[in-house]
Each structure stands twice: as C-alpha cells, then as structure tokens.
Please model this.
Amino acid sequence: MTEEQNNGKPLDISVVVPLYNEEESLPELEAWIERVMQANGFSYEIIFVNDGSTDSSWQVIEQLKQKNQAVHGVCFRRNYGKSPALNTGFARARGNVVITMDADLQDSPDEIPELYRMITRDRYDLVSGYKQKRYDPLSKTIPTKLFNATARRVSGIKNLHDFNCGLKAYRRDVVKHIEVYGDMHRYIPYLAKLAGFTRIGEKVVQHRARKYGKTKFGLDRFVNGYLDLATLWFTGKFGGKPMHFFGLMGSLMFLLGFIAAGIVGAVKLYRMYHGMSYTLVTDSPYFYLALTMMLLGSQFFLAGFIGELVARNSSHRNDYEIETEF
Ligand code: UDP
Ligand code: MG
Model:
C-alpha cells in the first residue's frame, strides 16, 4: 500500500535497501518483503537505492515497480558507497518506522514485524540486528569481533554486539536527524547517540550465507573503520571546541619545554658564577628536548586556534536538536 492509498496517513514502514550489483537477489527480496507486509497488514514502501550498479539491477527495479506500486527507486549516476545510498533513502522515507536491509538476502525480512514492534511498543529509537550466528568466512568474523569491541568502548553503547549489521530499525525521527556520509554506515548507532537518541536496542537476527553475487567490501573495511571511529569520537567530543583539546595539550607541552629550557640555562649560569666548569647550553641534550616541546606545543596551540576559527565559521555551529518546546 502506498501513502496515497493509505488515505494520506503516514505509512507504517519504509524499507530502505541500498544496492550495488545485486540483480539476481532483487526479485526474491521484493517478493519476500511483500509477503511479510501483507501477512501482517502493514502499509509500507520499499525504497531501492541503486548505488551506480553496472549490471541490470536498475532494469530489475523498474520491472518490480510495474508489479508493485509500493516499490520506489533512486538511481545514482555512479557508485558512491553504502552510506550515501542509505542517507538518500532516509531522506525519502515516509514511514513511521524505517527499516534498512542489505539487498543480498543475507538479512531476513521475516524479522520486520518484531523490529516494528520493538520501535512502536517498546519505544526504542533504534534497534540493531545482531547476527549471532554468522555465515561469513573466518577472515571476516574474527576482525568483526575486535571491531565491535572497540566500537562499544569508544561509543559507550555497551549493549551492542554488531554495529555494522545491515538490518536495523529506526524511529522516523532518528533517520531525519542523522547524516550518514563517507563510510559512517558502520557507526549509525553512534551517530544516533551523538544526536541525542539513546534508547538503542538489539535483536538477535537470522543471518544467511550470500546466495548470489559477492561481497562489496574487502579487508580495507577494518582499517577505514578504525579511522572513522577515531574521527567520530574526536568530533563528538571536541568538534565544537577544538581549543579544549589542542589548547590544553599545546599549553602543557610549551610550559614543560619552557621550564626545562629555563633549568638548562639556570644550571649554566649557576656554574659560571661559582667558577665551576660549564658547557654550552646547546651541548645539553635536554636543551633540544625542551626546544622540541616548545615547538610542538606552539603547533598544537595554533592547530586549536585555527580549529576554533573553522568551527566559528561553520553554518551549523548553532544547530541544536530540539525535541519539543511550547
Ligand atoms: N552496497 C552499496 N554500495 C556499495 C557497496 C555495497 O549499496 O558501494 C550494498 C550492497 O549491495 C549490499 C549492502 O550494501 O546490499 C551490503 O554490502 P555487502 O553484502 O557487500 O557487505 P557485507 O555483507 O559483506 O558486509
Ligand atoms: Mg552482505
């Protein structure tokens, strides 16, 4: 059922599916989602975001649209990545609950009713799937465990075991207030938390081996994943006030270097006045250490200052998330 057929009322569910070269899986996935929706009487839409596929995925989506009016498609001119695809789908979603799902049939649409219930009845903002039993190669499952342990620590979301699970459900507000860019789809729960949505839950979901096609992400996902986590942590903590980080580090280093240089100089003067043997200040290794500290300290301070100027110029500097007001 589409919104028009739903008497202008918002839809129950929007399913957002980012896809890149998944032609074989799409018909099966669409039919399965449709079956689940009808069995549960949900009004829904499916938004396929074709991320610049080079196979016939887009033609398949056009055919699906002929058959089912609840199907919507967005076609990127080139491949941008999963995060931009999700972000685009989120912007278009009209359902009260938004569910994301990979296109490769690894996630099961049978999970939809329970995810929907957790958002609407248990009042979760976001529910992430947890592929407790995975059907992926070991080269992927072991690094994934490590990755999730780090993400849990850094983000402080202690109850999540599977940050990057493609199957997730959101309250509509959440997807309208977060921006998923770059490769940040791995950290959507963290993005949601940073935006002030803290009721984050988890549901164990079935996972299946990839039936068609192959994975679109290699091992570089782990390197990039860690860098992105560092970025999020830093921008979340100091993004609006870089001076609090760089200024403190810089001042401390400069001060330490300054005192150390002072001591080196004072020792020399003391020995001179008391007729003892003395060496040039530049002969002391401590002098160079002190010098380096002062240089690095000023660099840090300057970085913080420039960061502040950048932050001050940001057009978002006074964008706050207001929940309600009267
Ligand atoms: N995907 C995408 N753009 C990309 C890479 C992947 O839209 O550049 C989609 C892909 O088609 C699939 C989902 O993101 O629907 C997850 O990708 P994949 O199954 O390759 O990842 P894995 O399951 O190996 O983590
Ligand atoms: Mg997959």
The longest strand covers residues 11-19. Strands lie at 11-19, 44-50, 71-75, 95-100, 126-130, 168-171, 200-204. The mean pLDDT is 93.
